What we know:
This protein is an all-alpha fold. It has helices at 6-34, 51-62, 71-96, 105-122, 124-136, 145-156, 165-193, 200-230, 252-263, 272-307.
Amino acid sequence: MANDWRPYVYGGLASMTAEFGTFPIDTTKTRLQIQGQKIDKNFCTIKYRGMSHALVLIGKEEGVSALYSGLKPALLRQATYGTIKIGIYHSLKRLLVQDPMKEKLINNVFCGVVAGVVSSCIANPTDVLKVRMQAQSKDTRKISLINAFRDIARKEGIGGLWRGVGPTANRAAVVAGVELPVYDVCKKHIINHTPLGDNVYNHFISSSIAGLAGAIASNPIDVVKTRLMNQRKLRVVSVQGGVGAPVIYNSSMDCILQTVKTEGILALYKGFIPNWLRLGPWNIIVSFKNYKRNANLTKKKTTAKRKG
C-alpha cells in the first residue's frame, strides 16, 4: 500500500547500518577528493597515496576515532535521506503499479531518480556537516551537532547549509538512473546464462556490478559535491575583523573547469576506489531486504498457481 510506513522505517534502519559499516571508507574518499587543490592552500598538498594509505595514516596520526569523525551527522543524514529515499521509492512504485510482479524497469528508474533527488535535497545540511568533519577531523569532533549547524548558518547564512545541493541532487539522480538498470540487466543475464539462477549469490554479484557502474558514472559529480561542501563561503559581516574567506569555486561548472585545468582530468576520479567499495556493500546491505521480499512474493505466486 502507498501509505505503508514500513518501507520508511526499514529503509532508514538499513541505510544507517550500511553507513556505519562503510564510514571509514567514506572518510578516506573525502580526504582523497579534497587533496591536491592547487587553488586552495589548505588542501594543496597530496598527503594520501590511496585508500589503504589514507586509512593507515589517519589512524596513525589522528587515532582510529578520526576515521569516524562526522559519523553523527552521517547517521542523522541516513535517518532522513535513507528513510525518505527508500520510503518514497517504494511508495511511488506502489502508486504506479500495485502488483510488484508487474513492475517495469523504466518505472523503477523514474521512482529512484525522484526519490534520490528529493531526499538528497532535504538532507543536504547533514551532508555538508559530515564532509567538513571528515575533512577537518580534530577541530570539529568536539562540536555538538546543533552548535555546528548554528555555526554554519551564522557565518555563511542558511544557504551555507545547502552548499553543493546541485551536484548532490545530480549525483543522486545519476546513481539511481545507472544502478537500477545495471542491476536489472546483470540479474537477468545471470539467470539466463549461468546456473546460479535467481538467488542470493545473483543478488550480491549484481549489486556489486551495479555499484561499480554507479561509481564510474557519479565519481566526477561526487568530487565536485565534496569540494563545494567543504568550501566555507563566509559572509564578511559575520567574520571577526571584517575579512571573509575567498570564494574558491563559484559553481559546479567552475569547480569542474578549475579542477581539470589545475589537476588534470583524472582528478575528477579521485577517491574512486573507496567510492566503489562503499557503493557495492552499501547496495547489498540496503537492497538485500528487497531481494528477500521479491523472493517471498515469487514463492507465493508459484504456490498459488500450483494450487490453482
